[in-house]
Design brief:
It is a single chain. Helices cover about 45% and strands about 20% of the residues. The chain is an alpha/beta fold. It has two domains: about 200 residues, Spore Coat Polysaccharide Biosynthesis Protein SpsA, Chain A (Alpha-Beta Complex); about 90 residues, no CATH class. InterPro entries: Glyco_trans_2-like, Nucleotide-diphossugar_trans.
């Protein structure tokens, strides 16, 4: 008996790419499967496309909600998911036909709670470049996987190249911000008893020359620093800081490098704004090297995301 898998697809202004995404999911060689497609108040033809697909395919469960961001759309899907395992696919990306079945096989073979696959960067000109996944072993503990996620290239923090045991998400939600998956990855990974990895690229991350990476601004800076703060506060509140301090400080170096390069290369920002952003990055990283305040830890214990 194969397990039911729920794939959650948040949708917003991707009418040109949505059919390719849905077709790739309908072509999965795994059943039973449910596709929870969440229209996040998209103003284009996406709602009509979703409903048309749902009328033709009973495994699609359409959801329509007011625009609240990708995190809220994923949260809505998690709340509705009936599967033994859940996964996420972005609506402008697509997956290989064996994406689900291979990850389910890995989960069962290694008695794991999370299965991770590699992915490729797909460029508009047709070029395809595999991600340089550096995971050193094919099965590891959840705690080790969570620590590796601090290195970014070893266990990427993306939500979408993984299948998760449904229960791992109990009590965890994506915050409403950019880098929402960075903020949640370590928390979910740390809950797992075992994580299994395949280096086969089963997911296609499609670059369009737009989106967050193409329009870097001050909100990107603030939200990346906020994600790093949420991770720090989680480590302190959970009594994990002593064993995680080294990985977390390496993570901060990655954050500092990525943000500085992104700001410097964003020529659409006036020089004065770039200088101000670089100053905020430096100040933010210095603050994150310090223990959280009592109020910050209290907010974590109450379940608040600030």
């Amino acid at each position: 008996m194969q397990p039911l898998v729920s794939i959650i697809v948040p949708v917003y202004k991707v009418a040109a790419y949505l059919p390719r995404c849905l077709d790739s999911l309908l072509a999965q060689d795994h059943r039973p499967l449910e596709l929870i497609v969440v229209d996040d108040g998209s103003p284009d033809e996406c709602p009509d496309i979703i409903d048309a697909y749902a009328r033709r395919h009973d495994i699609i469960r359409p959801v329509h909600q007011a625009n609240a961001g990708v995190g809220a759309a994923r949260n809505a899907g998690i709340a509705l998911a009936r599967g033994d395992y859940i996964g996420f696919v972005d609506s402008d990306d697509f997956v290989e036909p064996e994406y689900v079945s291979r990850l389910v096989h890995k989960l069962r073979k290694h008695d794991a709670d999370i299965a991770i696959c590699n992915f490729s960067f797909d460029f508009p000109n047709g070029a395809r470049v595999p991600f340089p996944l550096l995971t050193p072993r094919r099965r590891l503990t959840g705690e080790r996987a969570a620590q590796y996620s601090m290195d970014l290239l070893t266990v990427p923090t993306f939500a979408w190249n993984k299948l998760y045991r449904r229960e791992l998400w109990d009590g965890i939600e994506f915050p409403s911000m950019y880098y929402e998956d960075v903020a949640t990855a370590a928390r979910v990974l740390e809950r797992a008893d075992a994580v299994t990895v395949t280096h086969r690229a089963l997911y296609h991350y499609c670059l369009r020359g737009t989106g967050i990476t193409g329009n870097f601004n001050d909100k990107n800076v603030q939200d990346y620093l906020r994600a790093a703060r949420l991770i720090r506060d989680f480590l302190w509140s959970g009594g994990l800081w002593q064993t995680w301090e080294g990985p977390y400080r390496r993570f901060l170096r990655h954050v500092w490098t990525q943000l500085n390069i992104s700001v410097i290369m964003t020529t659409s920002l006036p020089l004065s704004q770039r200088r101000a952003a670089l100053r905020r990055i430096r100040e933010g990283i210095n603050e994150l090297r310090q223990p959280p305040t009592h109020l910050e830890l209290e907010a974590v214990h109450k379940g608040a995301v600030t």
